[in-house]
Amino acid sequence: MNSKRRPLLAANWKQNLLWQDIEEYCETLRAEMPEYFGEDEAPLPDLLICPPLCYLGLLGALLEDSHVLSGSQLVSTEDGGAFTGEVSAAMVADLGCDYVIIGHSERRQLFSDNEERISRRIQQALEHDLLPILCVGEDLETRRGGSAGEYVQAQLAAQLEPLRTAAQQELVIAYEPIWAIGTGENAAAADAQQMAALIRGWITSNISAAAGEAALLLYGGSVKPGNISEYFTQPDIDGALIGGASLNPRDMAAMLRSCAGVL
Ligand code: PGA
């Protein structure tokens, strides 16, 4: 972590939790982390919650008086019109969202999100003032074959043009090795740092030194209360994207405290 960048903990709820669960979650969070609610200045790290699309409005209402940010797990590749089932970036922004997760490996693998669709989603997000969190990361075979770095750089290169535009705002990249997602097998902090340094270096060389310095780099993959501080203490890692462990508000509070403790 670097004191010039605002650290971020992002909760990716994926396709989990129902209306009542979300009400209870927010109540527990309010009791556990009162500093995120109320008039005082927003505490660090920033907290972002990305619920399923259909609950963005509910979450916004429940957290209206808080410093908690909200984000979407998806935006359409299309601006608007006859696209049954799609939700546009304008709609997501209209619900008060600040961020959108794009290029998550589950979408790449299960829902045919290829580089072209990912680019279009990034462009849509930027046009509607949403900050994209671009997810990159290699599979186990690539890691074992020793080419994880090249693989991630190629993923970044495929998005170079939209990333250039994003860098004018703020670039957020989540390094999520696929083999670490939801497996309980988190990447070694030193390996995650090495990849974060590589990503920052890539941004510096291909976009600009200022963008490299300012980019917010998250690690994701089996982050939990017991291991989060290992990542936060790395110089190029500015936060985490958390799936499973973010579903429990007490674990989320423990992770926020752990990060605040090393700031
Ligand atoms: P996990 O998921 O924390 O459950 O491994 C992370 C993610 O997919 O963003």
Distinctive features:
binds 2-phosphoglycolic acid; 263 residues; 8 strands; 12 helices
Structure overview:
The chain is an alpha/beta fold. The protein has a single domain (25-33, 43-262), classed as TIM Barrel, CATH 3.20.20. It has helices at 19-32, 56-62, 89-94, 105-110, 115-127, 140-144, 148-158, 160-167, 189-206, 209-214, 228-232, 249-262, and strands at residues 8-12, 46-50, 69-72, 99-102, 131-136, 172-175, 216-220, 239-242. It has an 8-stranded parallel beta barrel with strand order 1-2-3-4-5-6-7-8, surrounded by 5 helices. The longest helix is centred in the last third of the chain and has 18 residues, at 189-206. The radius of gyration is 17 Å and the shape is globular. The model has no long low-confidence stretch (mean pLDDT 96). The structure holds 2-phosphoglycolic acid. 2-phosphoglycolic acid binds next to strand 8.
